[in-house]
Amino acid sequence: MVIRNDSAAVMTPTSLSPASMFTRFRVLAGIEIEDVSDYGRMHQMRQMLKSSAEQMSDLCEGWGGTELATQIDIDNNEPIPAGGERRVLCHFYSSLFNQPKKLILSAMSNLTVELELGDDTLCFKEATAKYTILRPTFLCSVLSLQADVVNGFSKHLLGGFAISWNMPEAVFHMKATVTSASF
Fold first, then answer.
1. For the chain, which end, N or C, has fewer CB atoms within 10 Å of the first or last residue's CB respectively?
2. Could you say which DSSP state residue 81 is in?
3. Closest CA to 72 of 98, 90, 53, 58
4. pTM of the model as a whole
5. Which one, of 94, 91, 97, lies nearest residue 60 by Cα?
């Protein structure tokens, strides 16, 4: 995606990845498959758990780093100049898309990925930050299957059977409300 700075001042990114700008990540296909609220915080925490070499690689693909960025101090994101644009790349953490098995997209009608943006200042130092996202693109690998394989899976699913798989990288978010002083 391309981020265009619409403010009159430079915008200096504060997060490790552009994906931290999104507050919610949902995947739907007739039903809700995945819903992660506070996605930006979860993404930032997972980025912080990576090795310094991986963080440096993500910095180069994401915001872009200044010449001061090192594996020891990666908090040197390159500012986006006023009126300027920056092409960024980010990896989304999704239990559905990051699992090792292949997905049969023809069996998933109306596959929809929803990303909810946070405030303009969520990932930038400046309180005057304002931006526009241009040309968002999902990059993926698509494999074609022979018709008899697709027909076999369709027959299995239409027969009332299910295809299940384990999602070991699933992230769960639970909210609780304390209604009294004692538990």
1. C
2. P
3. 53
4. 0.70
5. 91
Instruction: Give the type of residue at 109.
Output: S
Name the residue among 3, 171, 155 with its Cα closest to residue 80: 3
Say whether 40 sits in a helix, a strand or coil. Answer: helix
pLDDT in tens, 98-140: 887 777 777 777 888 999 998 888 889 899 999 999 988 888 7
What are 114's two structure tokens?
């929803």
Per-residue model confidence as pLDDT tens digits over 53-101: 888 777 777 787 666 666 556 667 888 999 999 998 888 888 888 887 7
* Cα separation, 57 vs 164, whole angstroms: 34
The residues near 123 (Cβ < 8 Å, ≥ 6 apart) are 13, 14, 15, 18, 20, 21, 40
- Range list of β-strands (E), the chain: 2-5, 22-28, 32-37, 85-87, 112-117, 131-134
* Residue ranges per structural domain of the chain: 2-158
Distances (CA, A) of 61 to 1, 47, 140, 151: 11, 13, 16, 40
